[in-house]
Amino acid sequence: MAETRVKIAPVDPVWSRVCEEALAAVAAEPLLGGLVHSSLLHHPTMERALAYRFSLKLASGEMSEQLLREIADEAYASDPALGQSARADLVAVFDRDPACHRYLQPMLFFKGYQAVQAYRVGHWLWGQGRADMAYFVQMRVSEVFGVDIHPAARIGRGIMIDHAHSIVIGETAVVGDNVSMLHSVTLGGTGKEDGDRHPKIADGVLIGAGAKVLGNISIGHCSRIAAGSVVLQDVPPCTTVAGVPAKVVGEAGCSQPAVSMNQILKDCDC
């Protein structure tokens, strides 16, 4: 007797929640029905929805929406890590941003989240040897979202960039998992040296608004960089640095500063 195999549909709690929230959003605001359906409910998977948003936002007279959609669909189909990272980023934004009350908000409205997902497609293109197309994606992300991330930069998952205006991340920068940063952060080089010249940000780091981290330096895990600081030297793990130039002013204050998002400096000489 032939064995009967039942095909079980994959469980995707993140995407299921997005769709539930989308239906509720349309019921509450019917005028948004076209946007919500075309961007979310029309698509069978989160990857397909992300590809649609990527193509819609980055299309221009130089590159059609159809071509960009084909590129993004190919990227998500060939590299499952892109979709996994997108889900981790979405949960991170929801958990850490008090202005985020639903999963659908980052996908529809938050340029930090959308810029990071577009960077991920550009980084995939870079890894495929398609540098010029990756540069095109970088250019359009900068023009549309005000976020400039070199496609060769390596960024982990669980990333939250709040507000995201004027973010700059250079070519040889490395950003670990579960990192949070606010607007106007620069991970840049110094001088005109070539090669490995950008910061290495370990897991769980919180980078405050307007902070500049410059040069091939290491920022230890679960550390905090205070808003407006200029960091030019290595930062030990689990510490807080502040000032221009930045110096160690105390411990990080908690085990996961990137999750707590606490930026208050207490009992320190800054």
TrEMBL record:
The keyword Transmembrane does not apply. GO terms for molecular function: serine O-acetyltransferase activity. PROSITE patterns: HEXAPEP_TRANSFERASES. The keyword Ribosomal protein does not apply. SMART domains: SATase_N. GO terms for biological process: cysteine biosynthetic process from serine. It comes from the Bacteria. It is an enzyme of class 2 (transferase). Pathway: Amino-acid biosynthesis; L-cysteine biosynthesis; L-cysteine from L-serine: step 1/2. One of its GO terms (cellular component) is cytoplasm. Residues 14-118 form the Serine acetyltransferase N-terminal domain. Keywords: Acyltransferase, Amino-acid biosynthesis, Repeat, Transferase. Its EC number is 2.3.1.30. It catalyses: L-serine + acetyl-CoA = O-acetyl-L-serine + CoA. Belongs to the transferase hexapeptide repeat family. This is Serine acetyltransferase. It comes from Gemmobacter lutimaris. The gene is cysE.
